[in-house]
Amino acid sequence: MSGRRGAGLSVNLRQCFADGSGFELRADFECPPTGISALFGATGSGKTTALHCIAGLCGRSGVSRVQLDNELWQAPGHWLPPHRRRVGVVFQGSRLFPWISVEGNLRFALRRRHQADGIPKAELISVLGLESLLRRPVWQLSGGEQRRVALARALCSNPQLLLLDEPLTGLDATWRRRVSAYLCHWQRITQVPVLLVSHQFEELLRMVDYVIPLHAGTTLAAGDLAAQSVQIDTPLTSAESAAAVLEGKLLRHDNHFALSELCVEGHTLWLARLPETPGQTLRLLVPACDVSVCLEAPRSTSVLNVLPATVVGRRPLERGMVLLRLRLGEQYLLSRLSRKSEELLELRVGRAVYAQIKTTALYGYGDLRQGGHIVGEGDHS
Amino acid sequence: MDWIALLLTLKLAAISTLILLLIGLPLAAWLAASRWPGRSVVEALVALPLVLPPTVIGFYLLLALSPNSWFGGSWEQLTGQRLAFSFTGLVIGSVLYSLPFVVQPLQQGFERLPQSLLEAAAVLGATPVDRLFSVVLPLLAPSLLMATVLGFAHTVGEFGVVLLVGGNIPGETRVLSIALFDHIETLDYAAAHRLAGSLLLCSLLLLTLLYSQRRRLRLW
């Protein structure tokens, strides 16, 4: 399919709600013209509302502005109704039409598709495993099946912008992997920008390139996933689940100990054996609470992964804890430790330290954005 | 059997139901969507036939339809036809009398329309008119069936309004319920039994069919 030119999605949302909650959405962000972006925030931060506003489902009120490439969708005095925005939405509830079958739902989208061509219906049916469901009425489907049908329906309409509200919720582990892999593949083939909404960090890790943090209805500075994961002053990292994203190259597998060796910034990292083939670039999730710090290289330790790093930032947390930002070459790590340890080791900014990461704490993910990793029947290369 | 009365009744019910649906659909849609405070007055007006004795409605209708009234007079000037004691007058009376039986189920149907599905259809590219036919109608089907059957059955079953507005002209205003009343007055109980029994049976069949179909349609 042809390459894509354009400025991507540009959004300034100002939406007050007259329901007495006093909640106000003040979201300003831009999504890159291609790739998968994520609005990330806690439940109730306004992610879903923002998505609905972009699709044109929040009414014309307010002074919001939405523009995709050169096409102005919404501005003061200007309004493009939702059916003319050529947008695909996968809602939180699957919102399938209950009076027609699964195939009827897909046909509904296909007949009104936003642009000619697009991915063939047969491919979507096969990749999302819908062959045996086509004739079933919608109310007979399980939650996970409904999610897959809803995604297939949205892709059938061949949108120029895809909005996904927690797209992997309700899917089991296998389907999570398949769906996220296929979404990355779909994005690469169609070059259509994708904006998803999530409150689960792991979900982002699998497929997202660009993160827009959203806190209590207000967007914060956005950036690449790896950079965002180690911004210690955002709500993303204040949670207990804070974790840094590292990128590294898979060197080899050690079959005797069932480990895999990764090269990160010239240093070796060991983690539980991965299914990927050596040579691939992987993303690695390093939870902040599994990174400890010492001043000298430990001689006898059970921890296999010891990396030299520099303290470059700190943020005090609740309950006597502190979050440290450590630089490791070009990349960063997070370490969550007690303020007492910080005091004892005199861990000031600029201090050279050794970061210890337990092998069992590391999670590696094949970097799905690089391609060649599609699970499903048929040839999609 | 009173075949002429039967045919007339079916014709009256069919025409009235058609008009009721044509009026009822937009009225119900408006009542379901409107935020206007005066909406309650309109709702009350629609519901009046439920509580008023049919003779009250019949009495006022008779006055309105008479050539001396503003409405009946202008109608006669426009069409050259008299409304009181005519089939057309009967249709007007039936429509008013059965209005709540059509509007109320439709209004409930419109109020229960899931906005979420309309939104989903919109982002899939369905225009407002497209949505009306491809989403609203299928979702409204159970209410539409209910309204049609109730409107039809209620028109077949009316008596008081018909008696006052239409009188008892064979082939013009003598519907089944009037024929039955006639039989009872003349003590022709055999004919009355035939008529009453078949009306009872037909209504029971119609309603049974309605409720069974409604359950099937609601299954989703």
Essential attributes:
heterodimer; A: 381 residues; alpha+beta; Rossmann fold; 2 domains; seven-stranded mixed beta sheet; disordered C terminus; B: 220 residues; mainly alpha; MetI-like fold; 80% helix
Summarize the structure.
The complex is a heterodimer of chains A (381) and B (220). Chain A has 381 residues and is α+β, with helices and mostly antiparallel strands.
Would you write up a description of this structure?
The complex is a heterodimer of chains A (381) and B (220). Chain A is of the alpha+beta class. Chain A is 21% helix and 34% strand. In chain A, the strands form four sheets. In chain A, strands 3, 7, 8, 9, 10, 11 and 12 form a seven-stranded mixed sheet that branches. In chain A, helix 2 (102-111) packs parallel to helix 4 (143-156). The two termini of chain A are 12 Å apart. By secondary structure, chain B is mainly α. Chain B has one domain (3-33, 43-218): MetI-like fold (Orthogonal Bundle). In chain B, 80% of the residues lie in helices and 0% in strands. Chain B has ten helices and no strands. Chain B has helices at residues 3-33, 39-51, 54-65, 70-79, 87-111, 115-123, 128-157, 160-166, 176-185, 189-218. Classes of the chains: A alpha+beta (381), B mainly alpha (220). Chains A and B meet through strand 7 of A and helix 6 and helix 7 of B.
